[in-house]
Design a protein that fits this description.
Layout (H helix, E strand, L loop, with lengths): L1 H5 L3 H25 L8 H28 L11 H15 L7 H4 L7 H4 L1
Helix pairs in contact: 2-3
Length: 119
């Protein structure tokens, strides 16, 4: 899984694109404010759109994430998360006797899920 993420170009590409947008929007805004003889009336509109584009992207990402959770776009039925499979495998190893240590964590009957997941 880590090997797949190592070659992923999406995050640096989007970050570079947002940096370019904000810088270009700032240039348009500076030209409009400090050099009125060279500026056009559409400069501030384009500047605010370019500067606000990262905010719109994250707002739409947040809305998408909320809607995906509301409409069942989460984990499909029967799929087990990686966290659950590692716990099952480690408890099976302890029960088979290959690991003879009696750990208080392994023998505990408490839920190991963080509070946010158990609520």
């Amino acid at each position: 899984m880590e090997d797949e993420r190592a070659g992923d170009i999406r995050v640096p590409l989007i970050s570079s694109l947002f940096c370019l947008f904000v810088t270009t929007g700032g240039i348009f805004l500076v030209l409009y404010v400090f050099v009125p003889s060279l500026s056009q009336p559409w400069y501030p509109v384009v500047a605010f759109v370019l500067i606000g584009s990262p905010w719109l992207f994250w707002l739409f990402t947040y809305i998408y994430t909320c809607m995906k959770g509301c409409y069942g776009g989460g984990r499909p039925e029967g799929q087990i998360s990686r966290r659950q499979t590692t716990r099952v495998a480690s408890s099976a190893t302890m029960q088979n006797g290959s690991n003879q240590q009696n750990s208080s964590v392994a023998s505990s009957k408490e839920s190991e899920l963080p509070l946010a997941y158990s609520v």
